[in-house]
Structures are given as C-alpha cells and as structure tokens.
Amino acid sequence: MMLQGPGVRLQDGRYALQERIGKGGFSSVYKARDALLQETIAIKMLEPTVAEDRLDSERVLVEVKATMVHLRHPRIVGTFNLFQEGGRFFIAMEYMVGGSLEQRIYPSRCLVLDDAIRVMTDICEGLSYAHDSGIVHCDMKPANILFDHQDRAKVADFGIADISQMRGPELEDGRAKQYNIASIRNLLIEAFMAKEITRFCQDRPVFRPILVHFGPNYSLADMTDALIEYCRTRILFDELLTEIREFNPKQYDRHSGELCWNKMSRTGTVEPRSTSQDTSFVVGTLPYMAPEQLEGVRDDPCVDVYALGAILYRMLMGRFYLDFDMQDTSEARMQNMWLIKSQPPGLMPGLPPSLERVILRSLAKDPRQRYRTAGEMRTALLEDPSPALAQQRERLDRERQVRNYIDWGTSALNDGDYSEAIAHFGRGLELDPNNEKLRRFLVVAGHQRDRGRYSVSPDVRRMVRAYISMGESALRAQALDDAIQYFEEALKLEPENEKARRYLTIALHRRGEEQGSTGPQPGTRQLRTWLQRGERALQSGRYDEAIQCFGEVLEIDPDHYRAADLLTQARIARKRPRR
Known about the structure:
alpha+beta; Phosphorylase Kinase, domain 1; Transferase(Phosphotransferase), domain 1; 4 domains; 6-stranded antiparallel sheet; elongated
C-alpha cells in the first residue's frame, strides 16, 4: 500500500493527506484533514528506516511524549497523536499556516526591529516553559520556528531534546520530582539478587523488551544500567519505582523512595544535579550550537539561550553572527567549530546599545555569563531600560515605510498608473519631507499624468502588455528587430504607454550600436556592464548584488528608467518570503 502523497488516508480513514508542505532528512510533512475533528492538521511521516532503528525510534518517542504530555503551551507546536502504519511512524501535529522563520529571512533578509523582538519574545516564552519542565531543545534554529494563522511564533521539533532533567509528578507543596539516577541505580543493585532482575523484567511487559538485548551471560550492573537507560528514554521512572516497591518492599523502604529524586524549587533550581556530558552524541545545527554543546553538553538551558542569540542576530543583521563556511565538507565543519569556540560575534551597526548587550550576553562563550534560561532573556528584551530604544524603533519603522512607498510608487509608475504612484510618493513625503528621491519621482509621476493618457479598453490593455512582454523577451535574446516591432505595435494601441516607449528607445539604441551608427558615449560600456551583471544576479536570486549593480547604473545615469525598474523588482523580490 502506498502511504504517501495526496489522497492517501491513514488510521482507518481518519487522516486524509492533501499536499506535502515540507521535507527533511528523515521525514516529510503533509497538510492533512482530520475527519473526526473536522480540522486541518499536519502529518509528519518518518522514513521507514526510523522505525527499524532502535535509537531513532526512541528519539521519536522522546519528541512525542515531551510535546504531548509535558509541553502543552500556546507558544509550542502541539502534537495530537503518534501511530505506526505500514512500517512507518506518523505524528499528527498542529498545522502552522504561516511557514517558518527560515523562509522569511533566507538568504539574507532582515526583520523590522519590532517584528524581530516580537518573534524572539514569543519563542523565549515557549522555551521558558520547556526549561521550567526540565527539557532542553538542543536544536533551536529558524527552521524550527513556525508561525500560526495569527502570525505568532511557536517552537517546533523536540526530536533531539534532552529530557534527562524532565520534571516528574508534582509534590503536595507544588515542587516537582527531579530523578537522581545514581540513587535509583543503588536502589536497584540492592533490591535485585543475582538473577532476579530477569524475573522482574519478564513478569512486567513494560520492561520485557530489554531482555531481547541480553543473552544468558550478563552482569547485574550491565542489566541494571540497561534498565535505567530504558526508563530514562521512555520517562518510566515512576513506574519503575512503583514496581520495585512491590517486588522488594524491604529494600525500597530501607533505601527510601525520596532518595531516588531531588526536589526542585518553584524557581526551577535543582539541588543537587549532575551535568550529563555524552560526547558520543553531538547533534544539532552548527551555526546555532554553543561551544559546550560541541563537547557533548546537552542538559543545560544555556545551550538554547546561545542559539536564541544567534537567531536574533541573524533576524536583525541579515547574516550569521560568524563568518561560517556553509560547504558540506569536513574541513568546513572543523573551521566552523573553531569559529564557535574562539571568535567573537560580528559587529552590529545601527542596533540600540541595550539590544546589542542582550545579544552579546546570549552569545557569551562561557555559559556562566549567559542568561540562565530563555525566561531571563525574555525579561531582558521586554524590560529594556534604554529610553533610546523607542526612538530607534520609531526611526527604523519610518524608514521601512518610506522604502515601501518608494517601491510601490515606482512599480505603479512603471505600470503607467500615475495617480496611484503620486499617492504613494505623497505618503512617503509626509513621513520624510526631505527625501530627494521621493521628490524626483513625484515630479516625474505628475508630469506623466499631466500629459494625459488615452482611454483604452481592458482588452486593448491586455494586448499591450502581451506585446511588451514579448518585446522584453526578444530584447533579452538580442533579437532587436523583433523587439522593436513588438514595442511599436504596443505603442500603436496605446501611444502614451511609457514602458513601451522606454523599451523601444533601448532597443533602437542597441541596434544603432551594433550597426555603428551610434558613437560611444562616456561611461556607456561601464553602464552596460553593471546593468548586465545586475540582470544576471536578479535572475539567479542574488538580490543584494542586483540592487548594488542597478544602484551603480543610476549613479552614472540617474534617469536610466530600465535600471530603476529592475532595482524596484529586486527590492520587492528580496522582501518576498521564499517558498
């Protein structure tokens, strides 16, 4: 049976897959419809190899149990169900219609200051709840930050989270259990006599699977360690202690059940707690990994705080905080690890000093110098003592609005909608009365409108756009005679179409250069070079390079309409989220 693709139904028809919305190394995510709840959800379908591998299967159980049982929070993506069908694991999750943060900032886009702080405080709120529950995410990155229908950010994917300090059931005074592995081990060693551990596991189905991995020759210590690890990955310590009390109550009472867990205060401080470092299990995404995480430290919330600092830096600056080599080679990975351990973050020009201090503290190499939890970092972001931050936000927001009005106005101007262009340029000048670019564009738009336009029908307008589009294609292909013919046909239908007139001028000029009738003009060769480089960059999606090239053209010729048109296209494309 084919268990992937639109139209497939799972769980006896309850879940109907609709379309694939994401794909990772070990899973694919589908938009689906839950027939029972009549809601749109997401189904994560894991590869068959995950179900076949014991370690991968345990990680799936960790993620699902963490999010279904312990992490029900508005700022964490919810998990509804885990089931196995056709040799695969499937996870039913909350559907996040807004996509991921990675889609919004890739490859080098920035967020507005207020938007970046809002996203970060949302994520800190969700991670703070996880940290208070004893769970460390260990893989925070923009791809694991998703947005709901209200554009609020949520934390996703706890697949490699550390749950060694996960809080157990609460005590009567509201404090929570924090299991002491060493005490549990001592209790088991004392409670079991030689071979009795086999009978203990055999008589209890929940612990029976560990017998599969042991033959007739084993040591009590090895068997005990296997039982502890099995319970740790499945969060079964409460069940284990209950069964031990029934199996050997004398040893349990003598050892005292309270010795098997520590007490966690309401502030989340555990006394005592050992740090788990397993250097054989180093996993994560390098540009967001803390220095100590590279050495195997996973159970410290400071690991997530470091990743949050790296994410906030990228949201605001449009680049990674270090000059990472993104090639998939061992040399690049070694270089990146050296950067993480030894190099300070890059400069942050234009940011308020107080916000820069928050980022620098989050990215401190020494975890003792960072915020202890995501909750502390969120408090620092919301309680900024700097009075200049509000002014800085207002200035940045005003500049963003002015840029938007310029882009919208030039787009309307190129489309021949002069009244709309004038309205956009006018609103921009209300925000920035001294902006010379806005003044110049406003004059051009007013002049074009005053010249008057022929009233044409929608059918004629569509034909004009078709001729212009064919002319542009011919112009790019250097078929100048065809391009000239298309633009002339467009002008016959709409003589006042400025776009067709501009392209006709460019085509005639290029044909004149080829025929030698037009002598070289100062700067013409350099201008053409910048324009061609910009067009190639725009077609390849390198929007920053394209913007720079078209800017150089306009420095040489401020009235070069083709460069202005392409510059507008590049700016709009850079702001558009990549799908």
